[in-house]
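Q: A reviewer asked whether we had any structural model of the full assembly, not just the individual parts. We don't, so I'm hoping you can provide one. Inputs are below.
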Amino acid sequence: MGTSDVSRIIVDGHGGDRAPHVVIDALAEILSLQRQVEFGICGQPEVLRSALQSKGLEGIVKIIPAEDVIDMCDAPALALRRKKQSSMHVAARAVRDGDWDAMVSAGNTGALMAISKLILKTLPGIDRPALASMIPATDGGTFFLDIGANVDCSSEHLVQFAVMGSCYLQAAEGVASPRIGLLNIGSEDVKGTDVIKVAATRLKESDLNFIGNVEGTDLFGDQVDVVVCDGFVGNVSLKTMEGVAALMLRTVKEELTSSWVAKMGAMLSGKALKRVKNALHPSEHNGAPLLGLNGIVVKSHGSADAHAYACAIDVAIREVEAGLIERTLDTMNQMSDAV
Amino acid sequence: MGTSDVSRIIVDGHGGDRAPHVVIDALAEILSLQRQVEFGICGQPEVLRSALQSKGLEGIVKIIPAEDVIDMCDAPALALRRKKQSSMHVAARAVRDGDWDAMVSAGNTGALMAISKLILKTLPGIDRPALASMIPATDGGTFFLDIGANVDCSSEHLVQFAVMGSCYLQAAEGVASPRIGLLNIGSEDVKGTDVIKVAATRLKESDLNFIGNVEGTDLFGDQVDVVVCDGFVGNVSLKTMEGVAALMLRTVKEELTSSWVAKMGAMLSGKALKRVKNALHPSEHNGAPLLGLNGIVVKSHGSADAHAYACAIDVAIREVEAGLIERTLDTMNQMSDAV
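A: Here is a predicted structure for the entire assembly that you could use as a starting point for your response.
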């Protein structure tokens, strides 16, 4: 946070399916809650000004001009090199320069990761940033990383992800001693790849609350708070979740419209079924933090509605308020002192 | 198949949670359908005899004596070396010797894989057997392998899995030209590990119907018939499915009992909801073939009920009837001729 107790958040005015309107509606939602927050929006001034005007937010949300826009289909490497005046670049530089405490974008994930890494750099002792997500579980949620930023990972990377995930849950969710598990194909020590076995040995020696190997089913239970894996496995697992959830909801819908009795039942259960849908396609869980960077960056889902986007902004505010960067640095220092 | 048109299936009388009773009930179910099949059951004769008697199957199902039993908690390597008189060993040797056409077991998966590989060996040109499963999808099912037998895989192994999966669907399900996808974290050619990129190049050059990279969500759609990955990723994905499905069903149950209106609705929709549950925890999909072996082996889920176990036996019968081994050998020969 800056010198005051106000969190200063810059949002990308151009990322996502329905920008900038969804983004500005999200700002309005948070501002209506009287939180200690100041907003900037980065992008093409004319577009943003008229959108802010239409919501009565002109003069309340500051416009940070950026001429260029990164598209969802731009290759990350090209977006990184060729679109240096994009809203994503400009917002990241503004965070680096300390003008803003955190940035939120619903834009191209690969480009956001590449640009954030180039401009903000990783924290000392951390080789690579990771992308993380809170997924629904019996006890509210499991924090899951890496979900796609790093295809090949060493044991050391997995250990760093564990530190990043643990610090995040302490800072942003107030979990005192997050239970950390390594995603594996069995709970026994002999299971899995050599990379995972070495990471497990390192984590056992650390001060982290490492509970050992966990399996895919454990992501949704209440035995573990942070689940760590490489970005290939994490991405496949996350997309498997999305696929199963979509298939189940489709099946429920088909079955509940298959006869008039089922239809009537579904009408009566309508509210309950809607809550099921919300619990499992949870806009409340929107906001995937990019961790390990020397700056706070949160990715919103591209198709987020205003409330979901506001949840992503809320993740950023909580990271700022809790001093996530300082906390991660402290833990990394303790880990290296212990070696 | 032997000299006649009758499929000769040997089942493991001791694997699974409720053996041998569930196993014998499954045999009774299949025998009641008047199929061209002859059954043997392998295990401790006294136990099996009294169980067969109580179901009126004594003299109809042949007992193949085996003194030892492999437990679910036995380490595969120890079970392999120390329990050579187990029902699993004896059944595998009986298949190797041509006394029976296929074996089915609900026992320890790791032990079954190790014993089958040692006794039956892999087919020429195939380095490692794989474990496969049919998973529910929009169009009925997607055939998914490897789901846990091989943690580290080379490009060549993935190509072999593709052949094995394609031949299985042709033989056992009658799919003329199965569409094969490589599980990856994006559909573009540049995505994923080097192992996957090389496998994709090899598959493009082959005669297989390779459609390219697919993602976790695609497992449940209708664009692909066979999805190939290494056993670590496959196992995590499969267990993620189980976890999401269990969480969703739990959430549905909680919500539908949360008020009297919801309860009444759930009562009316009861049959439809039961069909949802069956579609997603599908005993109809029980029966995971071990592929790439010089012999037919099918794994039943350890907690399978009689009908589910009968489905696993049905998988074995279809593999025998369709000549899966010969078909796989032919395809492997064509692949090596083409190189």
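A: Points you may want to mention in the reply: Chain B has a mean pLDDT of 90. The two ends of chain B are 31 Å apart (CA to CA).
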